[in-house]
Amino acid sequence: MIYQPTENLVFAVDYNRRYFNPDEVFVGGGTGSFIANKPFGDSATTSDNLGFQFNWRVFDNFEFGGWFGSTWADQKQGGDDNATVINWATTLAFPDLLKEGDMLGVVVGMPPKVVDHSIDDLEEDDDTSIHIETFYRFQINEYIGITPGFYLITDPEHDSRNDTIFVGVLRTLFQF
């Protein structure tokens, strides 16, 4: 559901229910901690997913947005346990910064994290990873955009014993 009270402000809410076959479980979409992705290992799992998003074009060259998501997972094979997984992010965008079509973007958020789990032997993610990303899209022409970027993840796997990950990326988009 999308609600746009003004031309510059948009809110969205989405819900989906998913079923994961055994050995195909990725509740956290592959971006969260191991336990957020597979809260019951490879047991068949269902999830109810609720997300809230917004984007506000504050000025022509500045947008502020973000999202919050919650997932309630239920074990469907080998038990009847459940887990709650959340994620969130805040975004800043500066469209047409140096020239039309270019864009600077910044994202700060938390990858999917288990905040409640019914299995006593499995703990929730005690620490919190933070994903920080920045990129700049150079729009070469109407068909090609090149986007160098950089991101880091603190406390990977939501575990403060893990070293921060630093990654540089270069994306190229061809539109025809």
From TrEMBL:
<dbReference type="GO" id="GO:0008643">
    <property type="term" value="P:carbohydrate transport"/>
</dbReference>
<dbReference type="GO" id="GO:0015288">
    <property type="term" value="F:porin activity"/>
</dbReference>
<dbReference type="GO" id="GO:0016020">
    <property type="term" value="C:membrane"/>
</dbReference>
<dbReference type="InterPro" id="IPR051465">
    <property type="entry name" value="Cell_Envelope_Struct_Comp"/>
</dbReference>
<dbReference type="InterPro" id="IPR047684">
    <property type="entry name" value="Por_som-like"/>
</dbReference>
<comment type="similarity">
    <text>Belongs to the OprB family.</text>
</comment>
<dbReference type="Pfam" id="PF04966">
    <property type="entry name" value="OprB"/>
</dbReference>
<dbReference type="InterPro" id="IPR038673">
    <property type="entry name" value="OprB_sf"/>
</dbReference>
<protein>
    <submittedName>
        <fullName>Carbohydrate-selective porin, OprB family protein</fullName>
    </submittedName>
</protein>
<dbReference type="InterPro" id="IPR007049">
    <property type="entry name" value="Carb-sel_porin_OprB"/>
</dbReference>
